[in-house]
Amino acid sequence: MNEPAVFKTTTKTMPESNIHRGDADIGGVQNHSYYHNVYGMLMARSTYEGMAMSNTDKRPFVLTRAGFIGSQRYAATWTGDNLSNWEHMHMSLPMVLQLGLSGQPLSGPDIGGFAGNATPKLFGRWMGVGALFPFSRGHSETGSIDHEPWSFGEECEEVCRLALLRRYRLLPHIYTLFYLSHKKGAPVAAPLFFADSQDPELRKIETSFLLGPLLICASTSPEKGAHECAHKLPKGVWSRFDFGDSHPDLPVMYLQGGAILPVGLPIKHVGEASLEDDLSLIVSLDENGKAEGVLFEDAGDGYGFTQENYLLTYYVAQVHSSVVSVKVLKTEGSWNRPKRNLNISILLGGGAMVCLLTCFLFLT
Question: Mind telling me which residue stretches traverse the membrane in this protein (predicted)?
Answer without folding.
Answer: 344-363
